[in-house]
Amino acid sequence: MKNIVEVKNLTKKYSQGGKHEVNALNGVSFNIPKGQFVAIMGPSGSGKSTLLHLLGGLDSITSGEALIDSNSLSNMTDSELSQFRRQKLGFIFQFFNLLPTMTALENVCLPLLLDKKSLSQVEARAKELLNYLNLSHRMNHYPDQLSGGEMQRVAIARALIAEPVLILADEPTGNLDSKTGHSVLELLRKLSQEKNQTIVMVTHSNEAASYATRLIEMRDGKILTETLTNTNAELI
Amino acid sequence: MLNLFKFISLRHLFLKPTRVLLTTLGIALGVSLFIAIEIINKSTLQSFKQSVEAISGKANLVITGPRVGFSSEILDKLKKFKEIKHAVPMVQTNIYFTNQNKLNENLVVLGVDLLKESSVRTYKTTDEEVMDDPLIFLNQPDSIIVTHEFAKRNNLGIDSKIEVATPVGIKVLTIRGLLTPEGVAKAYGGALAIMDIDGANYTFGRMGKLDRVDLILRESVDLESVKQNLSAFLGGAFEVQRPSENSKNMERLVHSYQALLSFFSTLALLVGVFLVINTVSISVVERRKEIGTLRAVGATKISIATMFMSEAFIMGLVGSFMGVFWGKLLSHQMVEMVATSMSRQYVTKISVTKIYFGLEHVLLGVVVGTLTAVFAALWPSIKASFIKPVEAMKKLDFNQLEQKSTLKIFYVGLSMLIYLVVSSYLGLGSKHKVLQYMSQGCTMIGSALVAPAIVTYLASLIKKTVKINLPLLKIALDNLIRFPKRTASNVTTLMVGLILVMMVTTLNKSFQTTLSNWFDRVFKADIVVSSSGDLVGFQTQPLAESIGLEIEEKVKGINKGVTNKGVYALRFTHFNMQGRQMGIKAFDKPDPSYDYAMLDIVDGPARGRVGEKLFNSENTIVVSEIFKAHINKTTGDIVTIETPTGSVDFKILAVVVDYASPEGIVYMSRDTYKKYWQDNLVSAYSLTVAPGFTVNQVRQDIDAQFGKSKSLMTVSQKEMKNNLLIEIDKSFSYTKAIEATALLIAFLGLFNTFMISVMERLRELGVLRAIGMEQIQLIKMILTEAFWQGSLGALTAIILGFGVSYIFIENDLSLILGWIIRFSFPWEVVGYVLLIGIFTGLVAAYVPARRAAQIKIREALEYE
Amino acid sequence: MSKIILTLFIFLQSIDAYALSADEIMKKNEEAKKNKNITTKAYLITGGGGKAQREKEFSWWRKLSSDTVHFKTLTRFHKPAEVKDEGVLFLEDKETEILIYLPAYKKVRRVETAQQSGSFMGSEFSYADITSHQREDYNYKLLKEEKCDAFDCYVIESTPKTEDVIEKTGSARGVVWVRKDNFVDVKAEIFDLEKKPWKKLVAKEIKMIDEANKKWMAMDLKMENLKTGRFTNLKFEKVDVTKIIPDSIFKKTSVGFW
Known about the structure:
The structure holds 3 protein chains of 3 kinds.
Chain A: E1 3-16, E2 20-33, E3 37-41, H1 48-55, E4 63-68, E5 71-72, H2 78-88, E6 89-92, H3 104-114, H4 119-132, H5 148-160, E7 166-170, H6 178-194, E8 199-202, H7 206-209, E9 214-219, E10 222-228
Parallel strand pairs in A: 3-8, 3-9, 6-7, 7-8
Antiparallel strand pairs in A: 1-2, 1-4, 4-5, 9-10
Helix pairs in contact in A: 3-4, 3-5
Chain B: H1 2-15, H2 17-56, E1 61-64, E2 70-71, H3 74-78, E3 84-98, E4 104-112, E5 123-125, H4 134-139, E6 143-147, H5 148-153, E7 161-166, E8 169-183, E9 192-196, H6 197-203, E10 209-210, E11 212-217, H7 223-234, E12 239-241, H8 243-286, H9 288-297, H10 301-346, H11 359-385, H12 406-426, H13 433-465, H14 471-482, H15 484-522, E13 527-531, H16 545-554, E14 568-577, E15 580-587, E16 601-603, H17 607-616, E17 620-624, H18 625-631, E18 638-643, E19 646-656, E20 665-669, H19 670-677, E21 684-687, H20 695-707, E22 712-716, H21 717-731, H22 733-760, H23 762-770, H24 775-817, H25 827-853, H26 857-861
Parallel strand pairs in B: 4-9, 6-8, 15-20, 17-19
Antiparallel strand pairs in B: 1-11, 1-12, 2-10, 3-4, 3-11, 5-8, 6-9, 7-8, 13-21, 13-22, 14-15, 14-21, 16-19, 17-20, 18-19
Helix pairs in contact in B: 1-10, 2-8, 2-10, 2-11, 2-22, 8-10, 8-11, 8-13, 8-15, 8-22, 10-11, 10-21, 12-13, 12-24, 13-14, 13-15, 13-24, 14-24, 15-21, 15-22, 15-24, 15-25, 22-25, 24-25
Chain C: H1 2-17, H2 22-33, E1 37-48, E2 51-64, E3 71-79, E4 87-91, E5 97-102, E6 107-110, H3 127-130, E7 138-148, E8 151-160, H4 163-169, E9 173-179, E10 185-191, E11 197-210, E12 215-225, E13 230-240
Antiparallel strand pairs in C: 1-2, 1-13, 2-3, 3-4, 4-5, 5-6, 7-8, 8-9, 9-10, 10-11, 11-12, 12-13
């Protein structure tokens, strides 16, 4: 079984206000096989967000290694990272982060548009995805015309358009009411199970974590515990 | 990248119409001024070229000589040259005409041989023939042909009479022909009249003299060699030129004036740069999350930067087109102003008859405006590209802007200013246009970069030294000090506009003071008597020597000195040297009691000694600073001047200050002048009033006895000085347009920056409201901060303006203009600038302040 | 029989001999006006076309040069006061010289050749009109014969041979009515550079001024500008052909020494 994510001794340090150093991540190691839905939990300052940022190449690694689909992120230039992100990764943010000047359809196409494809080349697949997510009727609407749940589903479609090896979700339900949140989480689980999509989700909600197949708990920049939440768990 | 532009940039431009409009307007204003100046500069030169061409017509070569005229015997001498097919003579003078409505017109009169003219020039008349009745016309010295427009304007026609002043008294001329504005009549903007050459000479007492000979050469003759041969044959007192060379000379002459105009318009454009930087910065800040998202989702840094730059490009493009259009309108308004002030400076009537607006102006405006916008957007766009993808994770976070130390920026700015000082003292700006732009850039950008630090320093100074009781004032001031970065952008925008205002007003003041002081030093007479006309431009008819004696004899109250002479003559004319029109001031030997006050010596022995030698020794002269600079000769050197009677070596006794000519002036005794130039005419007489009499009394006496009969006018010393200062002011009138433009752009930018300030402080303001601050108090607080920023920004502008102007005036100005002006600071303007600063700040902050007061507290507080 | 035919033949020849060519007509025309000396008083009246009428009085001397082809002419104006003592001297040659004396400055001035197609002293006559036409400069063609003012006339068309002449005269074509009896031209139509009607000359009061040599002169010449409606009337009186005019008065240096 291939590992989509391989993390060895990952460390992240940064200085705050030029005064003192903060160890956000203190030598974290783990692997994630393909198709696994992982939830990362922890209190504020535990390093979970930092870990997610590093996995997504959104921030630089201080020391250690992170391989995504056998690609080492620490050696990539900014340009290469950008390319990697749009071709191999999918992001789902807490605050949806849809571009206000683009329609739902266009937002979904965004990563590939950034990859220099034209709208006509990408449209078909985007429509397919929106269909799958029951959003066809909202295709040409702008973000300010969509509900929270709809926006998040558009974001998910966007995350999927490039057929990424890994989806990174940062508190995806943090801004949704519980009912909508549940439907989104259900969607993520469906993706993981039916489409074999590897997902890493950061959350502080136990309920959200229960949708995942594996739970990593963090504290003070280190992994505290690891559990498989699903009884049909596939161990590494 | 096209995708980003299509889906994001373009749509953002439509989302924020007000801001886009403001920015586009700002660029449009800057471009409009820049283009207006370019149009005016080009039109002026074109008009002059047209005049030259209209007059020179088909001539291949033009011979000119001493300004006082040369003997017509030259025509016989020219017969030797077989290459010359026709040699057509001409004389030129001015007449000053007062019509029934007391309006004055200055006409250039050309005296031509109408029996020979058709080979050279064309005249188009309302009739078929130029001369209504040649037999009558040619035999009447008083015949004159005027333009159709002139006649209509003054209610005149064929056979009407006009009175003009001549050195030999008032003459009455009869209009015997009317010209339509074609051919020759296009010259001098139509302010032209034609007389028969002999008629003109007879009327103005110049029989046998010529001012110009136009040559038509035979076909297939080598123009250059003829030109050389003629030059050699005629000698140095004459100039043989192609007609086109004449306009080249004019170009060179007005070049410096035009350079100054362009200098200021470019500065105004730079103010526009700041506006664009502001707008793009706001945009970047607002779209932080969007940028983070794009980066997270895979956009490269370059594409982010390009995105913002393309937005600036669009605004630049649209703004440029608007600017070109406005520029053309503006040029129509300003052209008269500029042409008039140029005419005064260069003692030649420069009249712009047509605005030359071509495709090249559109192209220039669009390129300049768009490049400016894109260049301005460079820095904020690059900053935008460095926004980390992590920002996408956050909601709205304006507060965590990179706290780059203001210190680093300050040092960059300081080094720019140091470069400015060094380059100024080394005179680099004059060496190449590119270096000049660099200096200008350093002036503005350097000032902008050091300004925030200065403002903060001033604020701390005030806090330490002044006891402020009002809490609102105190809080506002504290805010300023605590968040220098925030203050910086507001202050910078305002200050850049104000610095320009400071520079312009300082320039004006320096001119005024320098010339005023000089005038006081050298001008000791109470009354000046000359022929009616425009004395400032020395466009009056010269007077006969006898008039001086008459005045001496018949007028009471003239102070007679030790030598019992009361009326002193001055002859002001020009001669040619190294392709320049140098001025001559020939003075009567003054009364010893004045101690040769007219010599404002900067290099040479004591005034007394110089004066003695100048008026008692042979072949001695005194030269002006500019003469020295152009000819490269100074005290003690020998200078050879070509006079109508031959080459003469003169010894330079001293170098003086004299602003009467931008090319150079030579002083000599009138005896010397008369000897070599064979010219007894007088340009003006000066006299002082005897004790027991008033200036008015003596003036009235002169007016009564000579005013009408000899068409003389008297001017008092006070009036002369006043006229001089008014002239200077008028020369600067166009700068008001520059000031206004700069301030407008600054205001637009300030509005933008206040908006962004408020947005950046959203959480802070939300907290203040949450703990109980009222809306009105919030508004007051922001307005008070605006008050501080405005006043301190203005103060900084004044300080920096002082420094920058000082350097500019003491160094660069003399290189650009050829004038040596001493720096004089307009203290009276300080209050005005402060008020503008405060006012602009308050007005610009008002709407943002209200917006701030209306924020929903909950939204503002919603942070992780 | 043969003698009758011979006589008839000779007679017919002589009739033929009387059919003149255009060139010959113009030669006779030239001869008819060729006086060795003419001293006369003259009046120049200008007006019409909206302009006020003006009259000038002058003395006119004309003498045939030694080459018997060209003339020398001198005028001296008497009235009105503005033109009193002005003089104009014409020295005809390959290049005609025209000089004007202006008493106001006591100076003699030249009229440039280029100006010569222009009007003579504001009149409708050009300088070229005043000076004599040189026959060799023109091609003549007899157009027809018709009556003109009760006189039988030859109608002859003249066209300049060279561009130079056209430029000098300003005219590309002319038609002249020459009286059959005395070969004096009584009417002329002058066309401009585009061969459009320009001026019309009418000669009246044609008198024989020299009985002995059969010379004629028109005492009243009126030139009308068909384009502007203006006219100039040249009138002569007291014509004296007997007085021998001295050559000295035609010297450039003596102009003005009245």
